[in-house]
Write a structure and sequence with these properties.
alpha/beta; globular; binds thiamine diphosphate; binds iron/sulfur cluster
C-alpha cells in the first residue's frame, strides 16, 4: 500500500471557488434549527461526492435523515450503534471480492462511516479499533456533539468536563460531567493509520479538504468533527458556527492532521481567547464557578502544549 504522503502528492485542494455543487446529503431531513452536526455532515458529503457508500450508525444524523423521505442521495446503510466500522469493513471486503471475481467494476466509490461520539468513543470503539487495525480502505467520520443527543442528552465519554447533561446533572455534590473528554483522535492515531484529522464546521473549506484527503488515501482514515448541538448544549441556534470557531480559538479543540504518523497543526493559535469566552454562551456550562473555569483553562493549555511537542517531535521542520 502506498503511503498517505505519496497519495497526497498531487492533491487538488477544494477552494471557495471550487466547492463541489453536488449534494449527496440533501434536503428532506428534520434536524433541529441551527444544528452544527448536520451542517458538518453536509460539508463532508459534498467533499466525498456522489460515489459514496455511506454507513451510518444510530444517532441524530440517522434519525433525522430517514424518517419518511431519505436525505441521502447515495447508497446508504443504517447500522446499529456499535458496529458502523464493522459494517463498513464488510462492505469494503465484499466490494473487493466482487471486483476480484469480475462481478462488478471498480468505480472508485468511497466507503464512509458516519457516527456520533457515543457510537464512536463508547459502544463502537471495539469495532472501530478492529477495523483500523485490519487496515480496511474506508473513512470513519465521528460527528462529535459531545453527548447522546437523540436519546435525550445523556453524557458520553466525549462529554467535556463540567458539562451538564441529564446523566451528569450539576448540584450540591457534582459539578456536572466529572471526567475529562476522551481523546478519540489520539486513540485513532495510536493505530498508526495513514490519516487522522480534526475539523470544525467554522472552517468549512479546511473540513472539506480533510475529508477529500481522507477518502483519497488508501487504507483507513479517521476524522473527528466538532459538531455544535444547540438543543443539547442549551445555546441559541444562531451561535453554532460562532461556537465552532471559539472552540478552536480557545485551544479547546485544536485543528490538526496526522499524516503517516507526522503531526501537522492546521491552525496555529498564536493569540488564544480565554476558555471562559468559549464556555459562556452555552448554558450547559452555566453553573461552573471561576475555579472550575481556571481548572479547565489549565488543562486545555497543558493539552495544547503537548500537541505542539508532538508536532515538533514528528515534524521538526514545521
Ligand atoms: C447497543 C445500544 N445501546 C444503546 C442504544 C440506544 N441509543 C440509540 S442512539 C443512542 C445515543 C447516540 O449518541 P451518539 O452516538 O453520540 O449520537 P447522537 O444522537 O448524539 O448524534 C443510544 C444510547 C442502542 N440503540 N443500541
Ligand atoms: S439534537 Fe443536536 S445534534 Fe441532534 S439534530 Fe438536534 S441540534 Fe442536531
Amino acid at each position: 500500500m502506498i503511503s498517505a504522503a505519496e497519495a497526497l502528492k498531487d492533491f487538488q485542494k477544494i477552494t471557495p471557488k471550487t466547492i463541489p455543487l453536488v449534494e449527496p446529503f440533501s434536503k428532506g431531513h428534520r434536524a433541529c434549527q441551527g444544528c452544527g452536526e448536520v451542517l458538518a455532515l453536509r460539508m463532508a458529503a459534498k467533499a466525498v461526492g456522489m460515489d459514496m457508500i455511506a454507513v451510518s450508525a444510530t444517532g441524530c444524523m440517522e434519525i433525522i435523515s430517514s424518517s419518511y423521505q431519505t436525505a441521502w442521495e447515495t447508497p446508504w446503510i443504517h447500522v446499529a450503534f456499535e458496529n458502523a466500522a464493522a459494517v463498513a469493513s464488510g462492505v469494503e471486503a465484499g466490494r473487493k471480492a466482487m471486483i476480484r471475481k469480475g462481478k462488478i467494476k471498480d468505480n472508485g466509490s468511497k466507503i464512509v462511516a458516519f457516527a456520533g461520539d457515543g457510537a464512536t468513543a463508547d459502544i463502537g470503539l471495539q469495532a472501530l479499533s478492529g477495523a483500523l487495525e485490519r487496515g480496511h480502505d474506508f473513512t470513519y467520520i465521528c460527528l462529535d456533539n459531545e453527548a447522546y443527543m437523540n436519546t435525550g442528552i445523556q453524557r458520553s465519554s466525549s462529554t467535556p468536563f463540567g458539562a451538564m447533561t441529564t446523566t451528569s446533572p450539576p448540584g450540591k455534590v457534582s459539578k456536572g460531567q466529572m471526567t475529562w473528554k476522551k481523546n478519540m483522535p489520539m486513540i485513532a492515531a495510536a493505530h498508526n493509520i495513514p490519516y487522522v484529522a480534526t475539523a470544525s464546521p467554522a472552517w468549512h473549506v479546511d473540513l472539506m479538504n480533510k475529508v477529500k484527503k481522507a477518502v483519497s488515501i488508501p487504507g483507513p482514515a479517521y476524522i473527528h468533527i466538532y459538531s455544535p448541538c444547540p438543543t443539547g448544549w442549551r445555546c441559541p441556534p444562531e451561535t453554532s458556527i460562532e461556537t465552532a470557531r471559539k472552540v478552536v480559538q480557545s485551544k479547546v479543540f485544536p485543528l490538526f492532521e496526522v499524516i503517516d504518523g507526522q503531526f501537522i497543526l492546521t491552525r496555529d493559535i498564536k493569540k488564544p481567547i480565554p476558555v471562559e469566552e468559549y464556555l459562556k454562551t452555552q448554558r450547559r456550562f452555566g453553573h461552573l464557578k471561576p475555579e472550575d473555569v481556571a481548572y479547565i483553562q489549565k488543562r486545555v493549555d497543558a493539552d495544547y502544549d503537548r500537541l505542539l511537542k508532538l508536532v515538533q517531535a514528528t515534524n521538526p521542520e514545521a
